[in-house]
Design goal:
Rossmann fold; two-stranded antiparallel sheet; 234 residues; single chain; 2 domains; binds zinc ion; 6 strands; 4-stranded parallel β-sheet; alpha/beta
């Protein structure tokens, strides 16, 4: 069966060459979504190795976040930007899944993420999810769950559809999302150390609002992880 599958895969890739969703080059049948060169070249933050990293500092005085880590730096005009763009707007949910699997392997090796008991994706508003066909943060959560061997759960829901955040300053962004989330299955997170996951961290307003909701549950600890971290010049 394995051989048959390989023959079919190779045949299909001659007809429809698979491409890397980061650099656009053709990829081999054993590579999934992102080529090995890109996996090596994409700018990793290594935040999982330092407790007091610049991402964690962003939450100081705003939300009690245990550990914060991001897989890559969000590089304007670069390969990570391509990946995120394809993930959010290019109907490529497999990018989230693949990056989650790769990052889950990394997080498993970090002493800061050993206690995680459940992975919680930042929700999209149901209308937005319907339009996109999937929630990219759920894809990322599923991938991490697989390689970290920790369950994921949709504990939060988004009740308010906010306007686009891109042009807004940090305070404005927070006001915009402060009341947008609701805990729907508290028992899944109560008394646990949860890992809240999202695609890109820019100001941290969305993660902060979600963390506040989770921290209202008794004895819940919150850590956060994102695919990319956008650097600030504030
Ligand atoms: Zn590539």
């Amino acid at each position: 069966m394995k051989i048959l599958k390989k023959i079919l895969d190779d045949g299909l890739s001659l007809l429809y060459p698979k491409i890397c969703l980061s650099c656009g080059n053709n990829i081999r049948s054993y590579e999934e979504a992102i080529c090995l060169t890109c996996q090596y070249k994409l700018p990793k933050t290594n935040f999982h190795l330092e407790k007091e990293n610049t991402m964690a500092e962003l939450f100081w005085g705003r939300a009690n976040i245990r550990h914060a880590a991001s897989f890559y730096y969000f590089d304007k005009g670069g390969l990570v930007r391509n990946l995120i763009h394809n993930l959010k707007y290019g109907n490529k949910p497999e990018i989230g899944l693949r990056l989650g699997q790769l990052y889950g392997k990394t997080l498993r090796t970090s002493s800061f993420f050993q206690e995680i008991e459940v992975i919680i994706p930042v929700p999209l508003h149901p209308k937005k999810q319907k339009m996109r066909g999937y929630n990219q943060s759920i894809q990322f959560a599923k991938g991490i769950s697989k390689t970290m061997q920790v369950p994921w759960s949709e504990v939060l829901s988004r009740t308010v559809m906010t306007e686009t955040q891109t042009q807004k300053a940090r305070i404005e962004r927070f006001k915009n999302v402060e009341h947008a989330f609701k805990v729907i299955t508290p028992d899944m997170a109560k008394g646990k150390h949860v890992l809240l996951v999202d695609d890109v961290l820019t100001t941290g307003a969305t993660l902060e609002a979600c963390a506040h909701k989770l921290l209202e549950l008794s004895n819940t600890k919150v850590s956060v992880a994102t695919i990319a971290y956008a650097q600030h010049n504030t």
